[in-house]
Amino acid sequence: MRKKHWTLTPWFIIFAAVMLLMAFASFDYNIVLCYIELGISVAAIAVVFVISLRFRSYINNTVKNAAEKIKGLNPEHLEKYKYPVAVSGSQGDILWCNARFRKAMCGGKSPEGENINSYLSGFDIEDIKDGEGEDVAVDGREYTVFCLSVGDGVICHFIENTYYKSMVREYQSTLPCVAIITFDNAEDFSSDSDEAYSEVSLTVETNLQKWAAEYGALYKKIGTNRYIIIFRDSDVEKMIALKFPILKEIRSINVNNHIATISVGLCRGSKSLKDSELNARKALEMALGRGGDQVAVIKDNSYEFFGGTAAAAEKVSKVRMRVIANAISRAVVDCDKVFIMGHRFSDLDCVGSAVGLQCIMEKSFRRYCKVVIDKETSMAKQLVSYVEDRIDTGVFITPDEAIRGVTPKSLLIIVDTHLKNSLESAQLYEKCKRVVVIDHHRKAVNYIDNALVFCHEPSASSSAEMCSEIISCLDDKALGYVQADALLAGIMLDTKNFILKTGVRTFEAAAYLRKKGANTLTVKGMFSDSIDTYREKVEIVCSSNIYRGCAVSVSKKHTDDIRLAAAQAADEMLTLQGVDASFVVFEDNNRMNISARSYGKLNVQIIMEQLGGGGHQTMAAAQLENTTKELAYQKLLAVIDSVLDDIENA
């Protein structure tokens, strides 16, 4: 009633006046009706009078309480404040305000009766009262509002700081932002001819110079195929809105069927040029670790990515792998135990890589070495059984056994993942002070950052391919046919039998393993399914729908092998006509999971990242908490729309 007093009072008065007129009109022909109408009129006037008295008392008490909270002031002094002040009631209604509030906030009109929240730029008075102040904007002016509880109401002080905030924005918009650029695949052009390389390199430099000139930025070449540009922050904001069209301009350079790409690391918000340059290098490393052809923008230690549509360029040289192999050998020599661990729900690539390395660590380096795995949740049970049946010594141990056996000099080798939150055992990682990482997935933000050796190659087909190359650079005499079969199984899984992401080095690794005794028929047998898994896979494929070139299916059942069935169904759905990518939504461990596959035309890693997951350009996944299959399905379609719209508008 307090809040609506000024709204209801006129209606009561009008009602009383009408009833009074009707009473006079009916006086001559019906005296009883006249008295009834007269009584109603008097009652309405009495109600108005009582409510007005109560409301006036409510206002006086609230304003008095506000004044008492401020020592030495009377209610009259609130009017003399040199900035806008308003007092609101318990329900947020404005009870009183000073003249400056009416002039600055209301255009001279009286705001009594309005809700104070309409002057708080979307904030709720209950959320910000007695707080540290919030920034609001009213009629083009900016204020910091401080709300103080006073009895049943709240007194709001609006301190105008439009000029200071505009100065801060102007200062921030002119902050220097360092961008470091590298020509990703220069090696592709240099291997053809010097003339082609010179032509493409000059074209890339010209485009970068035009890009810098467009925004009046400082441009400088700092090394071979490496450049630095210093932009203003306001210009970076424009580039972000346009999704960095420079990436598309560089991709338009095509010589001898090679498409040029660049990677950009860009830093915003640093207080000094030195910090900006260091963070830009960090962002560039992240962009390259995600496969290149993209811009990584870092601000306040959080990343934003743009581009990344082109496949990562394969590096033909194995020099880096030899260097990494030497670094790993030194780390192994300095330790007393080696534990090899992969990701949760380990697959053939993860287990195969671990088995291959375990043999070398144990027999060539003569170190205690075990593969840490949860056999119950592993999706490579057939490979685990195959290894256990043919090797006498125990190769596999549980995470709990590994944790109990860790020493201060233990070395942990992590394969097929570089993310802390996807490890088979986070406790084992935290307990081991020495860590080596070997992975081929595109780099994500929450990567392991304390590794002695961080071997990351997003252009590789699989971790098994990388481990095969590392083993070939070490003393590989101990590598037997069992380990060769395990490594080949990992390569075949991630390349889909040498169809996806196969390069020269992929076939060289397969040839090396074949030389070591790998049998393709034996490996093929590791991919066989149970009849139940096969039926589940078929049902998932049959229930799929085609949406904008993507096959999407939701698994209705929940079986023990649902992860394996979903992954295989996603692979199978890629063979459907007109399908560029496939997605399977399924439930496991009270979470909604999405398995994504593509042939490379559509980067499924970008889609899964927007759902909190990650992976590779052709193979990715995500997990969604506290949701249903239907909501997960709708979220997936929304992200597909967003990504495809961005590609179409680029």
Produce a short descriptive summary.
The chain has 650 residues and is an alpha/beta fold. 45% of the residues lie in helices and 21% in strands.
Question: Could you describe the 3D structure shown?
Answer:
The protein is of the alpha/beta class and 650 residues long. It has five domains: 5-69; 75-165, PAS domain (Beta-Lactamase, 2-Layer Sandwich); 176-307, Alpha-Beta Plaits (2-Layer Sandwich); 320-525, inorganic pyrophosphatase (n-terminal core); 531-649, Diaminopimelate Epimerase, Chain A, domain 1 (Roll). 45% of the residues lie in helices and 21% in strands. The chain has 23 helices and 25 strands. A six-stranded mixed beta sheet has the order 7-8-6-11-12-13. A six-stranded parallel beta sheet has the order 16-15-14-17-18-19. The chain is elongated.
Describe this protein with a few key phrases.
Beta-Lactamase; Alpha-Beta Plaits; disordered N terminus; 5 domains; 6-stranded parallel β-sheet; 6-stranded mixed β-sheet; single chain; 23 helices; 650 residues; alpha/beta
Q: What's the count of strands?
A: 25
Q: What structural class is derived from the secondary structure elements?
A: alpha/beta
Radius of gyration: 35 Å
CATH architecture of the largest domain: Alpha-Beta Complex
Global mean pLDDT: 86
Q: Main β-sheet, in a few words?
A: 6 strands, mixed
**N- to C-terminal separation?**
57 Å
Quaternary structure type: single chain
Domain module tally: 5
Number of helices: 23
Side by side, the strands of the main sheet go 7-8-6-11-12-13
